[in-house]
Amino acid sequence: MNIGDFRKTQHDINEIFLNRWSPRAMSGEEIAEAELFSLLEAARWAPSSNNNQPWRFVYARRNTPFWSTFFNLLAEGNQVWAKNAAALIVVISKTTFDSGKPARTHSYDAGAAWGSFALQGSLMNLVVHGMQGFDYDKAKEVLFIPADYTVEAMIAVGRQGRKEELPAHLQEREFPSTRKAVSAIALEGLFRQ
Ligand SMILES: Cc1cc2nc3c(=O)[nH]c(=O)nc-3n(C[C@H](O)[C@H](O)[C@H](O)COP(=O)(O)O)c2cc1C
C-alpha cells in the first residue's frame, strides 16, 4: 500500500506521522513482551505537566490468564476484530499530583504518551489501534483501579493481518483516513468557527 495514495500533506512533515494509521486486520500471532515494552518505553518519555507522568498502562497479552478479562470489556463491534490482537491495554491516568492537588492536564498528558506509544508501534510495523468502545465502569471495577485514577481508553496491539479476513463492513473501512485542513484547526489570534 502506498500511503500517499490516501493521505496528502499541506506542509512538510516527517513521514512517520503519515505512516501511522489504525488498521483492524491482525494476524492473531503473539508479540514478544520485549516488543510491547518498546512501545511502553516510548510512552514513558512523553512530556507531562510538572513531569508528573500520570499515565499508567494495564495490559494483558493473548494466551495469558488476563486476556479474557480485558477482552470481555470490549464492545462487540471491537471484539470482532480485536480478537486477533496480541495485547490489550487499558490506559489510565492519575488525576492528582503526589501532593494530592488536582493534576489538571492528566488526560492531556496520557494522550501524549499514547501518541508516542502508537508512533513507536507504527515504526515497528505493529498494528496499534485506540479504542473508546468498551465498558469504562467495568474496567475500573475488574482491574481494581483506585478512585484517584481515571480510565482513558483501550489499545489493541498486534501484527498486521490480511484485510480479506475481516468482516465485509470492516474491509470497506480498512484504509488510512484523511484529515481536516490545517486552516480548520489552527486559528491566528482569536477563535473563529
Ligand atoms: C481514543 C481513541 C478511541 C478510539 N476508539 C475506537 C473504537 O472504539 N473502535 C475503533 O474501531 N476505532 C477506534 N479508534 C480509531 C479511530 O477511529 C482512528 O484513530 C481515527 O479514525 C483516525 O484514523 P487513523 O488512526 O487510522 O489515522 C479510536 C481512536 C482513538 C485515538
What tags apply to this protein structure?
single chain, 193 residues, NADH Oxidase, four-stranded antiparallel beta sheet, 8 helices, binds flavin mononucleotide
Write up this protein.
With 193 residues, this protein is of the alpha+beta class. The chain has a domain at 30-161: NADH Oxidase (3-Layer(aba) Sandwich), CATH 3.40.109. Helices cover 32% and strands 17% of the residues. It contains eight helices and four strands. It has helices at residues 15-19, 33-44, 67-71, 76-82, 106-123, 136-142, 168-171, 182-185, and strands at residues 55-61, 87-94, 126-131, 149-159. A four-stranded antiparallel sheet has the order 1-2-4-3, with helices on both faces. The longest helix has 18 residues, at 106-123. The protein starts with 14 loop residues before the first helix and ends in an 8-residue tail after the last helix. The structure holds flavin mononucleotide (FMN).
